[in-house]
Design a protein that fits this description.
By secondary structure, the chain is an alpha+beta fold. Helix content is 23%, strand content 28%. It contains three helices and five strands, in the order H-H-H-E-E-E-E-E. Strands 4-3-2-1-5 form a five-stranded antiparallel sheet. It is elongated, with a radius of gyration of 28 Å. The relative contact order is 0.13.
């Protein structure tokens, strides 16, 4: 029989340990045939929630907490954004009463999206 034309002339080093099947598979793990497919799947897995309506009591409690906040205070805020509730902790960078926006670090939050505020006094 003739020699296979696709066979390599390279010799295998007998002192080198044989690569496991798992390690061989890892070589190809970063390859993605469809760019963005994994992100798309994760996006579909998110559970979106409706925005909760706050009671008068909750609104009053929030209003009182809001009056305590000053620029450079460290707070934790829970707010509604695009179908989910997010929590951010950081320094208050800006409070704009006219635009009705509170900025914590680089995150701008509309007053009407705020669900809860935790100050250093809580």
């Amino acid at each position: 029989m003739g020699k296979n034309k696709y066979a390599s002339n390279r010799k295998i080093n007998p002192n080198r340990p044989k690569m496991t099947r798992e390690n061989r598979a890892k070589q190809f793990a970063p390859f993605a045939a469809l760019k963005g497919f994994e992100d798309g799947i994760k996006w579909k897995e998110k559970v979106y929630v409706d925005k909760k309506e706050l009671s008068e009591e909750s609104l009053e409690r929030l209003d009182n907490k809001f009056k305590e906040i000053k620029k450079n205070d460290i707070i934790t805020i829970v707010y509604y954004n695009k179908g989910e509730y997010l929590r951010v902790t950081g320094m208050v960078a800006r409070i704009d009463i006219t635009a009705r926006v509170l900025q914590v670090i680089n995150t701008k939050i509309k007053f009407e999206d705020i669900y809860d505020i935790e100050t250093g006094n809580d």
